[in-house]
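$ ./design --mode recover --in tokens.txt
reading tokens...
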């Protein structure tokens, strides 16, 4: 039967439950019990970014539409956008600045949800590119805080992941007034310890990571102004992992290895429950099938913010059938 349930519409901002009829059907069977953690599937920012990319294709038929950086960190979503005609230029394989310089004037470009370096705007304006900017409002808020601080000649320490496009966008605002702390990569700020520092973070970090960086900053800087804010989508998903039912013996995180918020969910689940529950991460149902999950009775299913609702549905139904 063809479904037309609202939860299958990714443009809705929060995905709450699986289809009720299927949940009831399977609960009467002796299969694995599966609890979808809410919210799941696309977050508001990702849904909007996809919508904007599709609009760019629609409004520029017959023209090349370039996606600068991965719009969202999920291979399935990216493949589907490429099939619709987007030319994706990944930040992993390309120097995006150099690539933009090679484009002819008035090219059509889509900027990713994670933000982009300041210098890209300069090229875009010089070459009169037609821009579709999918930068998420949470990312924009943090970037605009940094810009204001730089205008006031204040120092900002950015808690982030070295090389992540959102982090690079933040650091590009000023090489003198914005410095990174990424303890995992061994990167620390060099501002003099008697100077006041603002502290802000990448939107998709875990609270634990932020707190570790804060401890370092507290012990090295006398005057600081902490405004570090994760985005709401990241925060509530991490909270739902923290509340996983004691009786469950399996936690599944659906998401791409390239997605920071999915990886953070996985690492959080391992830290909290790794000793007494099996915790796995998979891109989709096909990857899930590679795990031997036969002995597990009760699963919690979570997803990162760039996992499509369809991917979530398929994984959910697969787990229910085990
Ligand atoms: S994960 Fe957060 S910052 Fe990233 S697109 Fe979604 S809402 Fe925006």
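writing sequence...
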């Amino acid at each position: 039967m063809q479904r037309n349930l609202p939860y299958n519409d990714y443009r809705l901002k929060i995905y709450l439950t699986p289809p009720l009829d299927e949940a009831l059907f399977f609960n009467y069977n002796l299969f694995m019990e599966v609890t979808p953690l809410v919210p799941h599937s696309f977050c508001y920012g990702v849904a909007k970014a996809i919508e904007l990319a599709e609009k760019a294709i629609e409004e520029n038929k017959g023209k090349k539409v370039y996606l600068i950086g991965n719009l969202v960190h999920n291979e399935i979503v990216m493949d589907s956008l490429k099939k619709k005609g987007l030319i994706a230029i990944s930040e992993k394989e390309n120097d995006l600045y150099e690539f933009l310089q090679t484009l002819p004037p008035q090219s059509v470009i889509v900027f990713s949800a994670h933000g982009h370096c300041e210098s890209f705007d300069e090229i875009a304006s010089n070459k009169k590119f037609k821009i579709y900017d999918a930068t998420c409002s949470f990312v924009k808020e943090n970037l605009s805080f940094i810009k204001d601080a730089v205008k006031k000649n204040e120092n900002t320490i950015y808690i982030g992941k070295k090389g992540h496009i959102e982090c690079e966008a933040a650091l590009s605002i000023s090489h003198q007034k914005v410095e990174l702390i990424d303890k995992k990569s061994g990167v620390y700020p060099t501002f003099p310890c008697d100077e006041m520092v603002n502290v802000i973070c990448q939107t998709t970090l875990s609270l634990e990571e932020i707190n570790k960086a804060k401890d370092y900053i507290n012990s090295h800087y006398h005057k600081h102004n902490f405004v570090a804010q994760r985005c709401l989508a990241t925060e509530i998903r991490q909270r739902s992992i923290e509340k996983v039912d004691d009786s469950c013996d399996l936690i599944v995180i659906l998401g791409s290895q390239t997605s920071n918020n999915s990886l953070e969910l996985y690492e959080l689940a391992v830290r909290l429950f790794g000793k007494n529950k099996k915790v796995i991460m998979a891109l989709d149902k096909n990857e899930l099938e590679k795990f031997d999950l036969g002995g597990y009775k009760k699963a919690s299913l979570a997803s990162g913010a760039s996992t499509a609702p369809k991917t979530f549905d398929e994984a959910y139904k697969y787990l229910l059938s085990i």
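exit 0
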